Prior knowledge:
The chain has helices at about 20-25, 30-45, 60-75, 85-105, 120-140, 155-165, 165-170, 175-185, 195-205, 210-215, 225-265, 270-280, 290-305, 320-350, 350-370, 375-385, 385-395, 400, 405-420, 430-440, 520-525, 530-545; strands at about 140-145, 150, 445, 450-455, 460-470, 470-475, 480-485, 490, 505-510, 510-520. It is α+β, with helices and mostly antiparallel strands. The two termini are about 20 Å apart.
Amino acid sequence: MYNKDQESYYDHRCLIVPQKDVLQIDIVGGGFIIGFKRWWNDLFLLSYSDRRAWLYFTSSRNMHLERFKQYRQYRNRIHPFSKFRNIWDCLMVHVFILHTIAFHHNTSVLFGKVFHMFFYYVALCVELIVIADLVVNLETGIIDSQTKRIILDTKQGILNYCCTKLFLHCGSAIPLQWIMLLRYGGDIECTLCKTNYFVCALRIINVISLYRVFESSKYWTRARAPSKAMYFFRFLRIGVVGFTSILQLFDLSDTICLITNMWTGKVNETALFNYLLAIKFLVAGAPRNINLFCFNFGRICKSLLLFSFGGPRLSTYYLDKMTSLVAYIIANIFYMWCLLECYGLIIRRKYSKDQMMINKTLALNLASYRQLPNAMHHKINQFYDFKMSDIRRVEVSNELYAGLPSVLKREATLHCYSKRIARLPFFSGWPPELMQQIVLALTQNIFLTGDIVAEPWMSGDGLMIVDVGELAVYSAQEHETGHLIDGDYFGELSLVTDKEVRMSYVIAITSCKVLILKKTVFRILMRDHADLFSRLRLQLMQKNRIPEHQTV
């Protein structure tokens, strides 16, 4: 039997059966082996959790179909937005940084034995990972940022990779330390074995690996939820790329100085490299390797501030002067890079208007990529030009507002909307505590010009109050019957019955903000006020001339 007094206190939920993933359909069964097989294949398929994927796939349904397509047609390919690719990109950042430092140590004449052959074994393993990276890149799909598509075809992927990145990637993947090991064997730590043209040529070739440090560190620039974390990693990238760039410059300078010594057969005592060699091998009480590490670190840091390297020298070698000048220029380039990132950070945190303009431009670009109609572009412009949408975005994204105490936010909400609720006749005389709970339960929604706010023959979601803007009311036969302006309301009957059906269209004439009191939330609040709810039900039904035993 239908209970008219208690009908509104129950929520009837429908059972939704989710669509199965391709791994659940094609890999049937249970147990550890089947679970491991699904986990392994899931590593290389499109990941639902990758935030970048939402720029290329408009819905979870499209992502679902993309996983079907990849598993059944391109199972041997790696999706660029897969979990494996994310893990691999993170690994390669640290691999290339470690490769740069290890190669600097293993080929430098100044460093002797540090941890016996440990550093060499580490470097050999790193070079194997770099070679494996070539295979991973060949097997990964293409991200076409122009058409916003992911291309998984093997032929197109290999052709694109060979035309764009193959030369630099192969140059940086040359196993230079494996070549040294094959030539010198156990004598690879010998200082005299490093003072020849062969090792100098390897050090010059290694400069190409600087490109891989720059490229792989783009992993740190991916968008992250907290803006502080995002900019922390951006500045970290600048510091790491700058440090490795100047380290490679000094390695190249020392290599040229060593080649000059071997070519001329003379040692210039004013050269910094020759000065360090003399201290290391000719002076009693030579400095330990840790001291040389610290000196090189200070040498890099000092190049960010001054022209000269310093040191107890009466004159400076001309190659050292040129190196200092180039290092100073490189340091200033990275200073400018830091300033640009600082400017972006200040714009993001302080100048919300500029950030809104950037968001508007990005939204319009996304609409263009999706080839959406011109009407959608017009809607986007309307949304960003509407003042109420600015306020809403500030409430959501502004860190100053987010940092306010919850008590102040509550007081602000009560101050803004209490008068709207108090003017409603069917709420007159209600307890102030209950009125405050109703005000705090309000939600906001923005409708643009021409949007349909309500349709006939459908049940209402709750009470709707026009806060800003103007709405037009049309009959089911599409005849205009009236207008709603600031403070007007409709849909109140849905608060007390689930059998209410709208009989009119409500369409936005101008951009407007509507306050919504959802019927489910309202009924939960009224569970402790059954008398008020019964009185409101009777009042609204009499107002709409509906018998108590029947609703329309």
